[in-house]
Amino acid sequence: MYGTIARLRIRKDAEGGLRGVMNAMESRPVAGFIASYVYRLDSDPQDLMLAVIFADREAYVRNANDPAQDAQFRELRQLLESGPEWNDGEIVWSWAKS
């Protein structure tokens, strides 16, 4: 598996817009996509961490190069105080309770 963890700093007035963009991203079918999670940090409610999981690096890169993904990212970017801090990499271990 492969994915990214990104730190996002959302504008104070953008919570509703963020939910709309995330809902739109969920509705777009993406080959190889497994899951995404958004965490609101206890230290500051404007700081979010986004974790996205794909089946493999190839699926991740295909999505990153998709014009539809770029359009959705541009919508998301307008809601942020600054650009995300991206941390891409291979998922070497996972555990989930079923």
Task: Please provide a brief summary of the model.
This protein has 98 residues and is of the alpha+beta class.
Task: Considering the chains and any ligands shown, give keywords for the structure.
four-stranded antiparallel β-sheet, 3 helices, Alpha-Beta Plaits, 98 residues, 31% strand, alpha+beta, globular, 4 strands
Folded structure, characterized:
This protein is of the alpha+beta class. It has a single domain, classed as Alpha-Beta Plaits (2-Layer Sandwich), CATH 3.30.70.100. It contains three helices and four strands; from the N terminus they run βαββααβ. It has helices spanning 15-27, 57-64, 67-77; strands at residues 2-9, 33-40, 47-54, 85-90. Strands 2-3-1-4 form a four-stranded antiparallel sheet. A hairpin with a 6-residue loop joins strand 2 (33-40) and strand 3 (47-54). Helix 1 (15-27) runs antiparallel to helix 3. The longest helix has 13 residues, at 15-27.
Strand order, main sheet: write it out.
Answer: 2-3-1-4
Helix content: 25-40%
Reported by name, the CATH topology is: Alpha-Beta Plaits
Question: CA-to-CA gap between the ends?
Answer: 19 Å
